[in-house]
Amino acid sequence: MSLGRVQELREVSAGLWQSVTLRLARAHQRRRVRQAARHPGELAAQVARARTILFVCLGNIIRSAFAAELLRARSLGRPDLRIRSVGLAATPDRPADPTAVQCAGRFGVDLGAHRTRRLDRSDIEEADVLLAMEIDQVVKIRRLFPQYRHKVYLFGCLTDEDPLDVADPVYAPEDVFVACFERIDRGVRRIVEMLPPASRAWAPTSEVG
Known about the structure:
Blueprint: H1 3-38, H2 41-49, E1 52-57, H3 63-74, E2 82-87, H4 98-104, H5 121-126, E3 129-132, H6 135-144, E4 152-154, H7 174-194
Helix pairs in contact: 1-6, 3-7, 4-7
């Protein structure tokens, strides 16, 4: 067998192994988030103690940006709580998606000043709770930063709706954006319920994530 053929077989084997590993990781995370949804005590305790909550999606132009600004508004801007958003594959310093800006206004959220940020190590080091919008994002973050895997949750476990992922509405019609934001709204309401009651009476602060 030629060296070229041997190398080709090695690459195919490596690809198959990577695919199997990813499928197993997804299955594990699905079981984990189902458990978190049924028994939210662990997540609730982490949110209650949190000083930094980080929302993550892919590009940081729609879902995570909206979630962060909505929580900031709903929690009355706790002065001791940082609320931030980033994207796994974000191009830095881009504005929010125009349709997202328009639809966010229906929820009293202004995304006009939002600028995108890409997830880096310092973000996850500083975060006390990280909420990702899709299972694959949870898997990737936990594989990139295994020492911080205990911080990473799927946002969808807050509402326990199927599908578990909060799908990306990019390029979709406006009604799809609204449905996405309504689901995020339900999850954010759960987060607010988890915050210490006294924190909701503090004066608002502003930080664009």
